[in-house]
Amino acid sequence: MNNVSITIVQLEVEYKNKQKNLALVSELLDGQASVGDITLLPELFSTGYIFNHAYEVHELSENFANSETIDSLSRLAAKHDTLIVAGIAEEDQGEHYNSVAVIDGTGLRHKYRKVSQTKFDKLYFSQGSELLTFEYKGLTFGVAICFDIWFPEIMRAYHSVDVVLHPANFGGHHSFVIGQARALEEGCHIVTCNRVGQDVVDEFTATYCGGSRVYSPKGDLMLQCADKQTVETVTIQDLSLAPQYNGVELLDEMQQITSILNR
Asked: What residues does 200 pair with on adjacent strands?
C-alpha cells in the first residue's frame, strides 16, 4: 500500500512581510528531525489575507513565472527533499488571484486559483475557474483553499482523489466541522493547514485560530494542532473509503437521486 507523509506548518504569519515569513518557514523546517514527502503551508502564507485596500495585496502579488517566493521555496524543497504546497498571492496579466503553488526542487509544478470567494476575496482577487489534481508518490491529490470546502459543488469533483490538501485562514473552529463532513462525503483525506496570528486593519482585527487537522475518509481525526505556531507531520496509510459508501457508486447514486427529485 502506498503511503505519504505530510508536514503541516501552522505558521504565525508576519503581516505583509514576505521575507520574514520565508525565513520563518526555513527556520521551522530546519528544526525538524525529518520533513514529510509533502510540506503544506497556509493560505497566503507570505502576506496575510485581509487588507485595508486591494492595492496592498496587489503590490505583494507575484507573477509565478518570475517569483522570488517560489524560487525560495524551491530551494527549501530541494534541501528537505519535499514537495511544498503553499498559498501565494499571484499576479498574471494584470489579474490577481488567491492561489496555491505546488513546488519541488526544480521549481513550480502546478498551481491552483481559489474558486470560491469570501467577501474579502471579491475585493482583492479574480476568481479561479479550474480545479487541480496531481499524482505524487503513487497517490492522487486535490487542492482546495479555505472557503472552498464549504461548497459541495467544488468538493464533489475530488471524490476520486486520495487526499485533499487544504491551506486555510480560518478564524473559527466551525469550519473544521465542514472539513470532517467533506472527508466523509467524498471518501478522501482532508488535510487542513490553518494559520495563527492576526491581520490588523482599520475596521477590525482578524485573529486566526490554528487548530490545523487531518481527517480520514472515515471522518476520524488523525491529527489536531493547538492554537500556537507549530510543525506536525502525519503519515497517511489508510486509503479505504468512508464506510457508508461501501458497495455504492456515489456519483451514479447522486445522479439517480437528482433525476428522481427533478421529476
From this structure: 205
Distance CA 54, CA 51 (A): 7
Q: pLDDT tens across 133-170, in order?
A: 999 999 999 999 999 999 999 999 998 899 999 999 99
pLDDT at 213 over 70: yes
Domain of 175, in residue numbers? 4-262
Q: List helix spans (H) across the chain.
A: 18-30, 54-60, 68-80, 119-124, 152-155, 174-186, 250-261
Q: What is the mean pLDDT of the chain?
A: 95
**Number of structural domains the chain divides into:** 1
HSE-up of residue 62 (Cα within 13 Å, Cβ side): 18
Question: What b/e string do you get for 215-231 counting C-beta neighbours within 10 Å, with b at 16 or more?
Answer: bbbbbeebbebeeebbb
State how far the Cα of 77 lies from the Cα of 104, in Å rounded to an integer: 5
Could you tell me which residues are beta bridge partners of residue 232? 8
CATH number, domain at 80?
A: 3.60.110.10
